[in-house]
Amino acid sequence: xxxxxxxxxxxxxxxxxxxxxxxxxxxxxFTCLCPRTGQPDFATLYLDYVPDQQCxxxxxxxxxxxxxxxxxxxxxxxxxRMLSDLVAATRPRFMRLRAEFNxxxxxxxxxxxEHRQPGWQPPPAVTLP
Length: 129
What we know:
Elements: E1 11-13, E2 23-33, E3 40-50, E4 54-56, H1 58-66, H2 75-90, E5 94-104, E6 107-116
Antiparallel strand pairs: 1-4, 2-3, 3-5, 5-6
């Protein structure tokens, strides 16, 4: 596996494909460039997903995230682009990507994008006494 940034997302077989379970990943060091000013934008990424047959391999995810460092992107575009790439690689039952961008000019931006596999419904919530 490479140690250079790249857009390839590797996967591995879901060890428990018969069960709905949630994988939560936090990436606190996302950076890209503002397409208007060229200044760096910083964000924490929160990825939650219910895998189907494939899970994303974490080192490839790290290198994928790193590949945006020198690219200019609007917050809305880069969040949706990353979600589309992750969905294409893993084909999850459900996936949500939240990008929480640091303040810039007194403005905070959070972008949330979701994917739901056609026909998939989450299991009912369990409420314990």
